[in-house]
Amino acid sequence: MIRHIVLFRMNEKADAEAAAGQLRSMEGKIPSLRSIEVGVNVVESDRAHDVAIVTTFDDLAGLQEYAKHPEHQPVTQWMHGHAASAAAIDYEF
Q1: Closest CA to 39 of 48, 47, 31
Q2: Cα–Cα distance, 15 to 39 (Å, whole number)
Q3: C-alpha to C-alpha distance for 43 and 60, rounded to whole angstroms
Q4: How far apart are CA 44 and CA 34, in angstroms?
Q5: pLDDT at residue 27, rounded to an integer
Q6: Mean pLDDT by 10 residues, the chain (93 residues)
Q7: N or C: which terminal CB in the chain sees fewer CB atoms within 10 Å?
Q8: Which among 53, 26, 59 is positioned nearest to 38, based on CA atoms?
Q9: DSSP-assigned letters across all residues of 4-73
Q10: 38 DSSP β-pair partners
Q11: How far apart are CA 43 and CA 20, in angstroms?
């Protein structure tokens, strides 16, 4: 199994809920996406990010399918236009 986690800092804090909605919109639409959890930060600090997405895939091929999937592309474009930065990690478990 592969876990894919991305943390976003938004250009505007007000965009965090919209970003979460964009990310959640993929649920049930990408066959290789086994689970998705999206959260908006509730504790402000210097190291905090605004939005997190935690996804699970069977294998690296599933993660790669997700990255190229037509349902993922508009979400990625929206996030690139509204996020100041992102940090990601992908690991096997």
Answers
A1: 48
A2: 13
A3: 32
A4: 30
A5: 98
A6: 98 96 98 98 96 98 98 98 98 98
A7: C
A8: 53
A9: EEEEEEESSGGGHHHHHHHHHTTTTT-TT--EEEEEE--S--TT--SEEEEEEESSHHHHHHHHH-TTTH
A10: 53
A11: 16
Query: Could you tell me the domains of the chain?
Result: 8-43+55-92 (3.30.70.100)
Residue 57 burial class via C-beta count within 10 angstroms: exposed 0-12, middle 13-18, buried 19 and up? buried
> First vs last Cα of the chain: how many Å apart?
6
Q: Please calculate the CA angle 51-91-45 and round it to the nearest 5 degrees.
A: 30
Does residue 28 contact residue 74 with C-beta atoms inside 8 Å?
no
pTM of the prediction? 0.95
